[in-house]
Amino acid sequence: MSELLPHPATGDLFPSPVPPGTGWPGDPAAPETPVAGTAAAVRRLARTPDLAELDARVSVCRACPRLVRWREDVARSKRASFAAEPYWGRPTPGWGAQRPRVLVVGLAPAANGANRTGRIFTGDRSGDWLFASLHRVGLARTATSVHAADGQELVDTRMVATVRCAPPQNKPTVAERDTCAPWIEAELALVVESVRVVVALGSFGWDAALRSFAGLGWEAERPRPRFGHGVEATLAGAGREVRLLGCYHPSQQNTFTGRLTEDMLDDVLGRAAAAARIP
């Protein structure tokens, strides 16, 4: 049994990484939640009509050995500044509205961000930028997201990662991306009826959005739209259209160098809010 450490918000004690069903804030899984250990099992277990059950199954997936080792090694070794905290150390499920009008698609959890807090884009500088902007344009209740018990709420918005485990150097392999793909496609299928706008963070999120919609039988413009900041494309299916917006990822590399500014991020997310008719 690993050492028990206090959650920074609740003070409850948890091992690191955290087993399912032990009371971690926002943990969707129970001890009996089925665990995918192979790509075939991911495809099978992704077939559920219930979003909460899908989140639970995502959160215990063990189908990619390299990613499992990495996320759990990070959860045990920890960054020095978080050494006194337990780490989630599991896949990060989607989070936000169950009937979102805006869907934000990212790459993967950060090793010391969502892999620590258990909530997507929470606890790292990329998340700091993203949530501050979401708040400014009316898509988040508060400007910060620090842990899964901080009371933050998204407004008619949901966030998902293309790959659900933190990868080394933030670079999943093609095989890992493909193994994880049924999770995002299944999640999209469960929420797409309400979605009006998709914001793709970076080329990885852009490609994942196009692939996932194509998997549901939707069609993009021809020729295939190419990613760029502020680029807009139209996805058609189910008798209607969804707007796809490209946005540079709020990574430290992009924000520190000025490639992505607050105004640029606010512009894309503000366009998403307006297109989704969110006050």
Distance between the termini: 49 Å
**Large-scale geometry:** globular
Structural class determined from secondary elements:
alpha/beta
- Supply the CATH architecture: 3-Layer(aba) Sandwich
CATH topology: Uracil-DNA Glycosylase, subunit E
Q: What's the assembly state of these chains? A: single chain
Number of strands: 9
- Order of strands, widest sheet: 3-5-4-6-9-8-7
How many domain units?
A: 1
* Radius of gyration of CA atoms, rounded to a whole number: 18 Å
CATH class membership: Alpha Beta
The low-confidence parts are none
From N to C, what is the helix and strand string?
Answer: EEHHHEEHHEHEHEEEHH
Q: Which helices and strands occur, and which strands form pairs?
A:
Blueprint lengths: L4 E2 L6 E2 L24 H7 L5 H8 L6 H13 L17 E2 L5 E5 L7 H4 L7 H12 L20 E5 L12 H18 L5 E5 H14 L3 E2 L11 E6 L2 E8 L4 H6 L4 H14 L4
Parallel strand pairs: 4-5, 4-6, 6-9
Antiparallel strand pairs: 1-2, 3-5, 7-8, 8-9
Helix pairs in contact: 1-6, 2-6, 5-9, 6-7
Provide structural commentary.
The protein has 279 residues and is an alpha/beta fold. The chain has one domain (5-275): Uracil-DNA glycosylase-like domain (Uracil-DNA Glycosylase, subunit E, 3-Layer(aba) Sandwich). Helix content is 34%, strand content 13%. It has 9 helices and 9 strands. The strands form 2 sheets. The chain has a 7-stranded mixed β-sheet, with helices on both faces. Strands 1-2 form a two-stranded antiparallel ribbon. Helix 5 (125-136) crosses helix 9 (262-275). Pfam families: UDG (PF03167). Belongs to the uracil-DNA glycosylase (UDG) superfamily. Type 5 (UDGb) family.
